[in-house]
Please model this.
Amino acid sequence: MQYMLVMERRPKDYMPFDYDKLSQYENENLNTLEGIDHFTSKFNDEEDLKEKLLQANFIEENEFNSKMKIVFKENNGIRENKYGICYKNEQEFLNYQFVIAFLEYCSTNPQAANRIYNEFIHQKDLSPFFRSVLEVMKNVRNASNPKNIYYAKYLPYHELRALTLFIINNFSDIINYEDNIKAGEEHERKRIPIQYNFKK
Model:
């Protein structure tokens, strides 16, 4: 599937960038989610990204207040990526270790598990790995195969991304951002296992 990073000038009015020029400028494949995320995660937030695009003459000053979106083609139309753009803070958690740690935490918070299940179970074309994870979330305290959450390690990138951003955007009151970012930094520096923790 081909994705595009765009400006939304008005509702459903998307302005694509000069992709050949922007891709060469950033040395990224900006037609994939991975490439777009690798680019946008260099920035702290949307304003930071638009400042860079403005300085590089990819947008005009009168476009600065337009929203950034990721879109893709589906059924002869254009759809927005539901889970938004991945900036620097989100990128810190975009890995299967964080997702598995949160899924393990869900055994103590069935409400969180239920929200994850309801969000994704009716989405089409789910991988068998994601379906196995969701079966655990369906009845997290009495799951017949609770270890199936570890199938999250094999999720395709777009599913790992969607699940990560859903968790970040909906459970910010639970995630100890500062402590967990430090855990990731320690992992990178010392190559030690990441120990994520969540508020009870």
Remarks:
- The CA atoms of residues 28 and 70 lie 15 Å apart.
- Residues 92-190 form one domain.
- The longest strand covers residues 3-10.
- Residues 187-192 have pLDDT under 50 and may be disordered.
